Amino acid sequence: MFFEQENISSTEYAGTREGADMMKVTETIAAISTAMSDSGIGIVRISGPDAFEIADRIYKGKKTLSSQPSHTVHYGWIKDGENTIDEVLVMLMRGPHSYTGEDTVEIDCHGGVFVVRKILETVLKNGARAAEPGEFTKRAFLNGRMDLSQAEAVIDVIHSKNEYALKNSVSQLKGSVQRKISAMREEILYHTAYIESALDDPEHISLDGYGDILVEKVEELLKELKKLIDTADNGRMMQEGIRTVIVGKPNAGKSSLLNALVGEERAIVTEIEGTTRDILEEHIQLNGVSLNIMDTAGIRKTEDVVEKIGVDRAKNQAEDADLIIFVVDSSRNLDENDFEIMEMIQDKNVIVLLNKSDLETKVTKEMIQEHLDKPMIEISAKEEEGIYELEQTVKEMFFRGEIAFNDEVYITNVRQKEALEQAFTSLKQVKRSIEDGMPEDFYTIDLMDAYEALGSITGETIGEDLVNEIFSKFCMGK
Questions:
Q1: Model pLDDT for residues 351-370, shown as the tens digit of each residue
Q2: If we measure between CA atoms, which residue out of 355, 250, 248, 231 comes closest to residue 304?
Q3: How many other CB atoms are there within 10 angstroms of residue 454's CB atom?
Q4: Is residue 45 part of an annotated ligand binding site?
Q5: 275 labelled binding-site residue
Q6: Is 425 marked within a binding site?
Q7: End-to-end CA distance of the chain
Q8: Is 162 marked within a binding site?
Q9: 252 is in an annotated binding site
Q10: Residue 182, annotated ligand binder?
Q11: pTM of the predicted model, to two decimals?
């Protein structure tokens, strides 16, 4: 009997969005959706079944709002009884065609802190409840306007620190992660249902040779999962910035480099060795790439107790770094401090900067290559020469020169990475069971574990507590 994929009902196997069942959305909520500072405009958002009625109670214009069509803007005044609060524009959006999927009203008023708060107080007095952090986006999730990966992308857009992070977050907001995950879940569900049906009806559905078919599909899924998991480090660096540590012996020019990158005198620069004794951290952008960059104490053997603490901290920071910038003073011969550093960073992502190229050169690239095979750039931190080449090298090392946002999905969320790793482990176990000749019902156990793990990324198999935890991290009014 031929088993058709389109005839499989997913109801029996699909995870339930427990949060949607447990958290009934019945109250009308309101919050300020713009920053609490004096500005040109402020927005108070109202969402829920009574949004239009509440707006009618406080809005005075030519027409009542509840009688107006969706996605229209109206000019008028917000009043608290007889007291006029502000001149406003009011935007109307009827559910389900709104951000939350509910009737939504947005009041655009003048952006003074007092006036925005006064309008919110008036809205709350007339029947709304103050929204919790992230509650608007939570309602969008619960009402099926977006899946959980898209909801998490909302906060990533807000927190984006660079062009790459923003583009990746917008891609996820459009559903790039959801599409990948849903496609894999459909494959897993199909094979699970086929095996279960064959076990229930062995006379009509045969499993002869099905292990070979399944192992081939599992291997394909494992490759897809591995690719997504491998993007997580780049995704984290896109979102948070590349953890970068500048190392080198004293007076190599580390602090001068930091000042050149930051564009101002942040680190003290003197001719005295050991001036930098602690970690100095700055967030900078190199051509759209974010670096969390740390200047450290010069690494050398020292009897100075305070300097020694700084040296130890420098070594510890280098151990945890995504990228190490090794600054070599090319005007001085290599010494034991340089050799110690090169030994310490052999297995790290390293860019070697041959600094002080404006002076007579005593250290060449060939000399360094005898001990350390890493990308090398000749620079002058003092003259700010070679910085562009450093930018391009960082991009090439971490993003292969350019990020293909239209084609590739980058995982930026730790929770999503953990779920992918759980699914990967479960599918590895499926492959192992097939290779060991285990009964077919063993396959379905691990297939469903993978299915559930992937479902937690999109929110289809997730509980109320985790939903609340995720959205509690959102800002108020979003």
A1: 988 888 777 778 888 888 88
A2: 250
A3: 27
A4: yes
A5: yes
A6: no
A7: 52
A8: no
A9: yes
A10: no
A11: 0.65
User: Percent of the chain scored above 70 by pLDDT?
Assistant: 80
Q: Is 274 known as a binding-site position?
A: yes
273 marked as binding residue: yes
304-328 pLDDT, tens per residue? 666 667 777 777 777 888 888 888 8
Ligand-binding site membership of 415 (annotated)? no
> Is 254 annotated for ligand binding?
yes
Residue 357 is labelled as binding a ligand = no
Query: CA separation (Å) from 460 to 30, 409, 466?
Result: 27, 20, 12
Residue with tokens 């479960």: 426
Contacts of 463 by beta carbon, 8 Å cutoff, 6+ apart = 18, 19
Split at pLDDT 50, 70, 90, the class of 126 is very high
Instruction: Determine if residue 296 is labeled as part of a ligand binding site.
Output: yes
Question: Is 241 annotated as a binding-site member?
Answer: no
CA–CA separation, 112 and 110 (whole Å): 6
Helix axes 440-458, 148-159, angle to 10 degrees: 40
User: Would the annotation count 276 as a binding residue?
Assistant: yes
Q: What is the pLDDT of residues 25-36, one digit of tens each?
A: 689 999 999 988
Fill in the DSSP letter of residue 312: H
Q: Residue 55: what are its φ and ψ, rounded to 5°?
A: -60, -40
| Spatial distance between the Cα atoms of 391 and 401, rounded to a whole number of angstroms | 10
Contacts 24+ apart (CB under 8 A), 166-175: 167/403, 167/405, 168/235, 168/238, 168/239, 168/403, 168/405, 168/410, 168/412, 169/239, 169/412, 171/405, 171/406, 171/409, 172/409, 172/412, 173/146, 174/150, 175/147, 175/150
- Residue 28: per-residue pLDDT: 95
